[in-house]
Amino acid sequence: MRDMITERLQQAAGLEPAAAARLTAAIVRAITEQLPAPDRSTFARKLPAGAARAARLAVDAPCDSLPLFYRRIGTLVGLPEVRVIEATQIVCAALLDALDADGRAWFAARLPEALSALSSLRALPFRLPEPPRDPRRYPTLAQGRPGSAHPLSEAHPDLGHHESIARSDNPHGDIKLASSPGPTQAREHEALADGDPRPSRPLSSGRQ
Description:
This protein is mainly alpha-helical. The chain has helices at residues 4-13, 17-33, 37-45, 49-55, 66-77, 85-98, 101-110, 184-187.
């Protein structure tokens, strides 16, 4: 008989068959260890043959939190607990799929409250994280991600409209004494320094 639970782990995690079988057995055993002792044999009878054999190896090793539960599995297979979290979620989801509705309800009712999340993994299976997306490929807000394809440090903003002083090389040239060509009269050659010091009509030609 095919071991559907081990096959699910093998395909989802990319493990070799022997490694997947060993890890599945450890996870099923650790799950069974969290059930009350009188219920363990009943649980084993509800499982496929391969998982049932692992369930019958269970001993008293209760865990009062998920981190301790993962550590227990890691101890059984010789891996750190962080390395078994994904595999545990995959196996739990496959195990729950192998049970009928009554079996899932029976299992959920007997799990310790601290481990109750294990009974909901069928509805929320583990998903591998998606690779980062290139924001330039997603033009809409719904498809895109936060952030700009062109950071501010690389921007070359338009400094103003065509008559704006911001576009001038000397934006305040008309009002700075050092660089200004002078007031309007000077630009039109009407300053005193540019004028003729002689009157336009000599005094001698004036009337007394």
